[in-house]
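Curious: why these numbers?
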Amino acid sequence: MSTTAVANFITPPSPASQSAYLYARMINAFGFTAAEWDKGKAEMRQILQTVAAKRAMIAYSELSNRLRSICIAAHSQAMDQMLGEISSEEVAAGRGMLSVIVVHKTGDMEPGKGFYDLAAELGGDVSDKVKFWVSELHRVHNHWANSGTDK
């Protein structure tokens, strides 16, 4: 075989690059590729960190409206899943449940039931939900207000 003929062959992708390509193309249960989900989650985390640094809270609907890289309805399972993933990762990093600042716009002005369910799964004592919420809110606000995150 001549050198010219060999040059016309396409080199197959390495297993690592093929795996990364397939991961980025996988569709999750909410219809997003892994790459779309990861980009949306990074954007959501940044929004939440900025809000927490101001010692503020954000309504589910406002959070949904501020997302630009992904479209997730305020009271959807996708919102619950993404907030849960972020909070689980934040707890593992020792920074507390970042989703503590996401609250109902009207009514109790607290996080939804999923927040407390996840808190219990992560080992939080939610026997007194308000006490847990206020404590976690202070923890997260204190961390991000003192982190140097742009405000």
